Amino acid sequence: MNRDDVAWSGYWPAAPTPFTAGGAVDTDALASLMNLYADHEVDGVLVNGSTGEWFSQNDAERRTVAEVAIDAVRGRFPVVIGVSAYTARDSAALARHAESSGADGVLATPPPYVHPSKDELLAFYRSVSTATALPFMVYNWPRGVAVDMGTLPGLFTELAALDNVVAVKDSTGNWLSMLDTVEAVAGTVRVFGSFLHHRGLAALLDLGGDGNIDGGGVGAPFAVPFYRAVAARDAVAARSWADRYRALSGRLINPDYSGVYASPIPQLKAVMNLLGQPGGSVREPLLPVTDPTTLDHLARIVEDSGIAEASRTAGVGSAV
C-alpha cells in the first residue's frame, strides 16, 4: 500500500472518550460526538488516540469505544482506531479487533515508556502494521512516548516502505522537523502534521502534506473550511480561516502540545462542556478543570474566538 490507496486528508478530530462523572465510558455521549463531527463535515476521525485517553482504559473498554464510534459514524467518514500499547502483541490484538469491527485503518505510537531504538521501532511497526490488512498510520508523539522518530535518520523513509503503512501523523513540537518528514515521505505516504497557520498553508500549497489530526475537534468550524480552501487552492480564504483557528487554538495549546491553562485533555473537555458538546469528564490520573478562574479564562477565549456561533452554524456553508 501507499498514499494512493487511501483518500485520507483534511481535518480530522482526535476524539476524546466521554466518561461519566463516576468514570464509566459514556457510550451515548460518544455516539453523539460522532454525529457532531458529521455535522461539522470533518474528513475523518481518530478514536482511542492520545486524546481518547486510551491509557486509562482496559482492553474491553477500548474495544467498546471502537465499536460504538464505528457504528455511530456509519461510513460517513473514515474511522481510524488507535491501538497503541506496550507490546506489539497487544497492539496487534487491538488492530485485529478494529478490523473485525469495520474500522478504516489503525494507528499506533511507539511503545510508551520503553524508549525503543531505531531497530526496535522498525520491528515493532513491521509486526503491528501487518497484523491486519487495514491501512496503517504511524504516529510520532514525542510528548507522550519520549522518543522523537524524526531524530532517527532515515526512519520515516523505512517506515513508509512497510507494506501496509499509508500515513504518518507527525506530532513533534519541532515544526522544522515535521517539514523534514513531509519532504522525506509525502510522495509515498500521507502526512498529517501542524499546518493550520500561514506557514503551514505555504507548505501545503508547495512542499506537500495532507491534513491535521487535532485534539477534540473544537476548532472544526474553522479548520474544515480551511482545508476546503486549500483543496481549491484559495490562499486568501485559507489564510482567513487559519487566522480564526489560531485565535482559538493559539490561546489554548502551546507549541509543544501542552495546555496553557491545564493538562490538554481536561482543558479540552472543559471547553467542550462550555460549548455544550459531549466531551464528558476525564478519568484518573487526569483531573477535571474546576477552578473558577481557569474556567473564566476558558469562557473568555470561547467568546472572543466566535467558535460557539460558528459551531451552531457549522455544515450550512463555508463562505468567509
TrEMBL record:
Any one Pfam family match given in the protein's UniProt record, by short name: DHDPS
InterPro entries: Aldolase_TIM (IPR013785), DapA-like (IPR002220)
Origin species: Rhodococcoides corynebacterioides
GO molecular function, one term: 4-hydroxy-tetrahydrodipicolinate synthase activity
Family (UniProt): Belongs to the DapA family.
Record flagged with keyword Oxidoreductase: no
Protein's UniProt name: 4-hydroxy-tetrahydrodipicolinate synthase
E.C. no: 4.3.3.7
Keywords (A to Z) from UniProt: Lyase
SUPFAM superfamilies cross-referenced by the UniProt entry: Aldolase
